[in-house]
Amino acid sequence: MVIGIEGKHSLIQNYIRMNKTWWKIFGSVLVIYTAIAGLLLGVPRLPILNESIRNLYFHVPMWFAMIVLFSISVFYSIKSLSSKSEIDDMKAVESVNAGIIFGLLGLVTGAIWAKYTWGQFWSFDPKQNFAAISILLYFAYLILRNSIDEEQKRAKISAIYNIFAFPMMVVLLFVLPRLKDSLHPGNGGNPGFNSYDLDSRMRMVFYPACLGWILIGYWVYSIRFRIRSIENKQQAN
Amino acid sequence: MQLAKEVKYLIHKEVLLEWRSKYTINGVLLYVVSTIFTCYLSFVSLNEKEKLIWNALFWIIMLFASINGVSKSFLQETKGQQLYSYILSSPAAVLISKTVYNTLLMLVLTTVALGFYIMVFSDYTPPDLLLYYVAVVMGSISFSTVFTMVSAIASKAGNGGMLMAILSFPIIIPVLILLIKLAKNAVDGLPWENSYDEIGMLLVVNVLTVATSLLLFPYLWRD
């Protein structure tokens, strides 16, 4: 894998940009704050949910981080189709890898919450099923990558599948659950984490949690990308 | 207008090739008929109470038959054939002609399959057969738009069958959920107003799929 002089130059630029530390510290402080405040600050008393409403701080930000990472991946897939650069392809695949971690964490935190409020880890709720299917979509993307040996061809074909699959994931996660009855908070007339019960105390923790986890997700992705590019450089030498 | 002309010729070519060998249509028809017959032998009859199973079974059979039928479109062409058509025509024309041809193929296939299915499981027929047929037509269109593009991707990746299934299932599931819901409305005999949402959503998803396919195929078609 040979990266030209221009490629090396932009690689170095990437290091400099990603190595800035302020947003990493900011993200870590936000996540530590939400972990402490999320468990200690007061929450509204709602029937059924009770204290489990605190899961909002830990479950929902996972999905936000996943969506942001998958959007980054689609962005770099589109970019790699026109630029044909290996770096863009690496960014696309590493943000999918990081996004899948957050998707799985979202499923696990949701399932643990469901055990205590619905009685079962997995109760075939549409939201659970659709989230699982959209994770499958990205596993299929990774398997497609593994099946092609030639690097440029792999970059091109997997980018095409990634872009083709993204609108379907949006339909799965945001449109279909609205057409079906679900037990999930905010659906089918259940008390949701909506404006009326997301009171100001919860907002003070929820919004920082989302921002913090998105930053942490981006950090995970940038570390993975840097490890991958160092490995590639070693192989080239 | 150049595009319309190219599409017309390419569809004519596809139909002519199929008419000469009659391999895909006969193969998939036999596949569907024997699957339905196997289901009939294992269920013997599905009465009024089991109409949900009746519906689910039909869509499972259609899903696998259409994967087998549509995936042929790109996978069975040799490299030389593909090169030849790519020299002569634009990528959009190739994709549109394949999609239209697959839609025609699927329409014939699903119509015959539905007829045979109703004949075999004669204990139960959906009360609103016209709406059920609308669902079947929508299904043929959606299956062919999605599977045509996925089969193009799978054929470029080089290892056909298994990859085709892995790549297409997560994409087709949202469409399938809408289709089953629409078909269930027909099975329950609900008035048509209740189904406009699903029909609209299916149309939107299809337009979305065709649009992204048209945008992406020019990057895919040439090695």
UniProtKB/TrEMBL annotation, chain A:
Origin superkingdom: Bacteria
Keyword Transmembrane helix: yes
A Pfam family annotated for this UniProt entry: Cytochrom_C_asm
Membrane topology: Multi-pass membrane protein
Major location category of this protein: membrane
Keywords of the record: Cytochrome c-type biogenesis, Membrane, Transmembrane, Transmembrane helix
Domain Cytochrome c assembly protein: 51-176
Transmembrane domains' residue ranges: 21-44, 56-78, 99-118, 130-148, 160-179, 204-221
Subcellular location: Membrane
Stated family: Belongs to the CcmC/CycZ/HelC family.
Protein role: Required for the export of heme to the periplasm for the biogenesis of c-type cytochromes.
Protein name: Heme exporter protein C
Source species of the chain: Pedobacter mendelii
The organism's taxonomic lineage, starting at the top: Bacteria, Pseudomonadati, Bacteroidota, Sphingobacteriia, Sphingobacteriales
UniProtKB/TrEMBL annotation, chain B:
Membrane spanning stretches: 28-46, 52-71, 92-118, 130-154, 161-180, 200-221
Main location: membrane
Membrane protein topology class: Multi-pass membrane protein
Signal peptide: none
Residue ranges the record marks as coiled coil: none
Protein keywords: Membrane, Transmembrane, Transmembrane helix
Subcellular localization(s) per the UniProt record: Membrane
InterPro entries membership: Cyt_c_biogenesis_CcmB
Family: Belongs to the CcmB/CycW/HelB family.
Name the record gives this protein: Heme exporter protein B
Organism: Pedobacter mendelii
